[in-house]
Amino acid sequence: MTLDELIPENHLVGIIEAYFAGLNLGTLGFAEAFSKTMGRPPYDPADWLKLYLYGYLIKVRSSRGLESTYRRNVEVMCLLAGPFGTRLQDR
Fold it and tell me: Per residue of the chain (91 residues), what is the pLDDT tens digit?
């Protein structure tokens, strides 16, 4: 079973994913993040935007609340996994 099989077809995360699929984030000023020679790789700016939008829609505003939501909410895990399952394996 994969994460996307756990999410209903018309769930909020699918709507957010479809919205972001139609955006060109580069033209909006959200370039891909690159790491320096040391340290952990940076998070994708698109993931941050998706997480903040999801948090806004479910009325979770604090960064700690968003982190807690990500750690316990399968829908958010799926949202941040990208087009269903591609990026979650890299984390």
Answer: 676 677 777 888 888 888 888 888 888 877 776 667 777 777 778 888 888 898 999 899 898 888 888 788 878 877 877 544 444 444 4
The domain in which residue 72 lies consists of 10-21+42-91
The tokens describing 15, both together, are 């709507």
**Cβ pair 14, 7 in contact under 8 A:** yes
Tokens 């700690």, residue located: 64
Give this prediction's pTM.
Answer: 0.69
Give whole-number Cα distances, 42 to 7, 37, 86, in Å. 27, 12, 17
The H helix count followed by the E strand count for the chain is 5, 0
Q: Is residue 35 part of a domain?
A: no
Domain tally, the chain: 1
Whether 16 is in a domain gets the answer yes
